[in-house]
Specification:
The protein has a domain of 133 residues. With 312 residues, it is mainly α. β2 and β3 form a beta hairpin. Strands 1-4 form a two-stranded antiparallel sheet. A two-stranded antiparallel sheet has the order 2-3. It has eleven helices and four strands; from the N terminus they run αααβαββαβαααααα.
Length: 312
Amino acid sequence: MTPAERRIAALRRFSMGITGLTLVGHIWLGFEQSWAQVLVSLATCYSLELVLEWVDAWSARRPARFRGGPVALMDFLLPAHISALAIALLLYPGGRLAPIVFAGVVALGSKAIFRAPLGRGRRHFFNPSNFGIAATLVIFPAVSISPPYHFTENVAGAGDWLVPLFVLCTGTLLNFKLTGKIPLIVAWLSAFAVQAVIRHLTLGASLEGALVPMTGMAFLLFTFYMVTDPGTTPVRPRNQVAFGASVAVLYGVLLALHVVFTLFFALVLVSTVRGAWLYFAAADNVRAAIAARARGLLVRRPALEATVRRMR
């Protein structure tokens, strides 16, 4: 399977997973957001993704990527679909729709604006849904994150364990087979536990309280479907480890500074540093190439001068 095929397969499974969770959550589990917020989020992200692609294709004089039939259109809209449902799933704006629209616009806009050199092209380096959620939490102080209890509000007994276990198993399988982000997940979970112990020993935080977020559904969703985003996280295992551990360390620092909604802000900040590093590395490579070319010209200069003298 080629990298492009693996990417599409991963996006399809991500999409099916979050769609199933949304439907089951609203029908059975007790999600408290309205269906209107889900539909508005989808409409916002779909329309903006199509418009931005059309503008980019027109300016570059190339065919739009959503052309080619229904399958091509659906595959093109998969990232927007995932971002839209993640926003509707995790944000809790009460009965308002404006924060949902704002989050969708910021999420999709970040893909077009914040792009860093990577390989032979440029890629966005912010997880779109995470960036949109973080921006909304800053701009709309009354907006919060979905309460943890609503993921299993209408189940009891074995259901309290089966729902998280299902997310754990499917998320692990997806990241193991398609995204290759297991090193990132292991580093993130290990560093999260370490920072909890350090806060307990140095700041007097309750060890149980510092570790208990790891048992929640929101934490599982963040672990398997957000911090492991294939398009905005490193590929090399050692870079994955550094990325995942950095998010956990920054989470501990922000929490010690009494910053709320820490998971989302920690990921934004680490992604910002990674994006800046990608820009710096690309600029450094350009400077090295220019210097190498200049050295080559200096080496060849005597021969060039001899040729010029003969031509005279």
